[in-house]
Write a structure and sequence with these properties.
It is a single chain. This protein has helices at 4-22, 25-47, 55-61, 63-81. With 85 residues, it is mostly helical. The chain has a domain at 11-67. The longest helix has 23 residues, at 25-47. It is flat and about 60 Å long. The mean pLDDT is 80.
Length: 85
């Protein structure tokens, strides 16, 4: 258990760097929301396995990729409608 926090920090830092380099906010939001959902699911299972409370933060985090998808779609639609002279 000693190196697990260091490994998690290393993985998160590499994911942030990868998606920042690609300028892919949607991919980052999908991976980030999966990691946050897994975190809350594990904490819920460890602390209170009989009460399912993790569904509430997971539902809230689930909106993040949807917002990024529709924001990117709207941005592409606006950019494609602008015609160069």
């Amino acid at each position: 258990m000693g190196n697990l926090p260091n490994l998690c920090d290393f993985m998160v830092a590499n994911l942030v760097y990868y998606f920042a380099k690609r300028r892919d906010g949607f991919g980052f939001s999908v991976v980030g929301s999966i990691l946050i959902a897994a975190f809350f699911g594990i904490i819920n299972y460890i602390m209170t396995p009989t009460i399912l409370w993790s569904i509430y933060p997971i539902f809230a985090v689930g909106w993040w990729p949807l917002i990024m998808y529709y924001f990117g779609r709207k941005k592409k639609k606006i950019n494609s409608s602008i015609k160069p002279n």
